[in-house]
Amino acid sequence: MIKYLGSKRTLVPLLLRVVRSIPSVRTVVDLFSGTSRVGHALKRSGFRVLSNDHNAYAQRLAQCYVQADREDVVPRAEALLAELQALPGKPGYFTETYCVASRFFHPKNGARIDAIRDAIEELALEPELEAVLLVSLMEAADRVDSTTGVQMAYLKQWAPRAEKDLELRMPEVLPRARHGKGQAHCLEALDAARALEGDLLYLDPPYNQHSYLGNYHIWESLVRWDRTPVYGVACKRVDCRERRSVFNSRPRILDALSAVLRATTAHTVVASFNNEGYIERGQMEQLLSSLWGGNAKVLTIPVDYKRYVGAQIGIYNPSGQKVGRVSHLRNVEYLYVASERDLGRELSELEGQSPRQPDLLG
């Protein structure tokens, strides 16, 4: 899967242990699905997953990893990927924007991306099959980018991987989960909380001012293929200035999350949130405790981890001079579990557990 700030790659085993321990969970609503790493793992474990994210690239990832089923799409996808891999490069909007006006990708790979993306568009495929091809292209591009893992800026010199040739690979599309077919939605969080019904609600919202659209604007443009105007050195989409999430706002996030929690019909809520976030641990525990008429039972599991690489290398000015220093190298991710019934017996072995060093970018 793509490199992603806030990815729960190493937190997944703990999340799965929590969800599996809770009786009667069949359907999980993943309200901020991101790369769908969590949704993919839940599907593998047999749960029906209803994914949601307001960014188009995230919906495409969920269509591939949560909604599409291996038995329905893989044979044709493999044949199409072989055809697309054989296409010669043809420079276009992507090359001009992200390889010439900026340096996120080597021009030879930008030309391949242009050609392959145009071909996918011309095929006019059904959404799930198209999503598999788009995710393959997105992940292939991610393997040859020249960044520290986010698209706020690119490296001054080409990263060694940027010189490699773009290679399409088949994403790991899973068979249909035993509890039912998954779904992928592209709604605002509150609308999704009102519309999607499940036994358990999983929340992994943005925790500070950094927008996922701003951090991964290239994937949004690659998926939408709308050739939108861009601005700045990083060639961001113009809608990065307009599509701001309330969850990226310190004054608004607490009310926004409260509204989401009031809207859900799930009998259990699992939330992960960073200690650098706008909501402090005490505030989150108080908010969750107020659910189900104030009768919610809340368990908090702290997880220690390294900060992402971009936060570990310091602050540099445009001339490459170091002008700032790293304040700290480790953070805490809190995993909160709230339920309308006492889960003390089921989750007793997890209380006080603090796994170390998950890499939350990857």
List the helices and strands and how they pair.
Blueprint: H1 12-21, E1 27-30, H2 37-44, E2 48-52, H3 56-67, H4 70-85, H5 93-100, H6 107-123, H7 127-142, E3 183-185, H8 189-195, E4 200-203, H9 212-215, H10 217-224, E5 230-231, E6 236-237, H11 253-263, E7 268-274, H12 281-289, H13 291-294, E8 297-306, E9 315-316, E10 322-324, E11 330-339, H14 344-347, E12 356-359
Parallel strand pairs: 1-2, 1-4, 2-3, 4-7, 8-12
Antiparallel strand pairs: 5-6, 7-11, 8-11, 9-10
Helix pairs in contact: 3-7, 3-10, 4-7, 5-6, 6-7, 8-11
Whole-angstrom Rg: 21 Å
Tell me, what is the CATH class of the domain at 1-67 and 183-206 and 252-362?
Answer: Alpha Beta
Q: Give the beta-strand count.
A: 12
Unreliable residue stretches: 308-313, 354-362
Q: Fraction of residues in helices? A: 25-40%
Strand order of the largest sheet: 3-2-1-4-7-11-8-12
SSE order, as H and E? HEHEHHHHHEHEHHEEHEHHEEEEHE
Question: The biggest beta sheet, please?
Answer: 8 strands, mixed
Which topology of the domain at 1-67 and 183-206 and 252-362 does CATH recognise? Rossmann fold
State mean pLDDT (0 to 100 scale).
90
What is the CATH superfamily classification of the domain at 1-67 and 183-206 and 252-362?
A: Vaccinia Virus protein VP39
N-to-C span: 8 Å
Structural class: alpha/beta
The CATH architecture assignment of the domain at 1-67 and 183-206 and 252-362 turns out to be 3-Layer(aba) Sandwich
Number of alpha- plus pi-helical segments: 14
Tell me, briefly, the overall form. globular
> What portion of residues belong to β-strands?
15-25%
